Amino acid sequence: MWHRLCIRQTGLSISAEEIRMSQSNTVLTGCLLPEATTGCLAPIDKDGLEKLIAAGKADPKVIKTLKCKTVAEGRFRHANYIRNLAPYIVDEPPGLLGDDTAPNPSEASLAALGSCLAVGLHANAVHRGWTVRKLELQLEGDLNITAVWGTGDVSEKPVGFTDVRVKVEMECDGVPKEEVDALISHVTKWSPVANTFVRPVNLEVALA
C-alpha cells in the first residue's frame, strides 16, 4: 500500500489516501532486500535496538556531533569524507554545469530524508514485532533555482525546497493500514532529518 507524506516549510502533513503506482524499477543502494528464504526484509538486531532505547531513556539530553569534510575536486564535483568510509560524491547535472557523475546537493538531501524515514520505519516495526516484507519510499521536492547560487536573480523569494512529497510503500504481515498510517506519522515526528527540514536550525558558516 502507498501512503502519502507531505513536508512543507510550515510543517508536516500526512494523508491516509492510498495511491496506486507502478512498481519502482530501481532499488536504492543500501535498501533492505527480501531474504530469499522468507520473502521478508532482513530485520535489524532487536537486542541492539533495545540497548539503544535504554541508553536514550537513561540520558535523554545527550548531544552527538556528526562530522563531514567536503573537498572540491574541480568543476562541480565534490568528495565528502565521513568517518572512515569511502568518499561520498556530490556533483551537478549537465543542465547545472556539472558532469552528472553523482546526485546534486538537493537530491542528496532528499536521499538523506528518505533514508532517515526508512530507518525509523524499520526500527519501529522491529520494536513492535512486525514482519516487514517491503519498504520503499519515493521522494520529490520543489525548489526555485533562479538565484543560481546567488549569481542570478536575487530578488526576494524562498530559497531551497518549499514542498517535499514522500510516498511510502510498506508491506507488513497482518498489520492494518490504519496502524501503518499511525506509524508513518510517529516516525515523521521523530525523524532527525525530517525535523531538520521543517524546524529552524542554527547555522554558522565562516572562514576556517
From TrEMBL:
<dbReference type="Pfam" id="PF02566">
    <property type="entry name" value="OsmC"/>
</dbReference>
<protein>
    <submittedName>
        <fullName>OsmC family protein</fullName>
    </submittedName>
</protein>
<dbReference type="InterPro" id="IPR015946">
    <property type="entry name" value="KH_dom-like_a/b"/>
</dbReference>
<dbReference type="InterPro" id="IPR036102">
    <property type="entry name" value="OsmC/Ohrsf"/>
</dbReference>
<dbReference type="InterPro" id="IPR052924">
    <property type="entry name" value="OsmC/Ohr_hydroprdx_reductase"/>
</dbReference>
<dbReference type="InterPro" id="IPR003718">
    <property type="entry name" value="OsmC/Ohr_fam"/>
</dbReference>
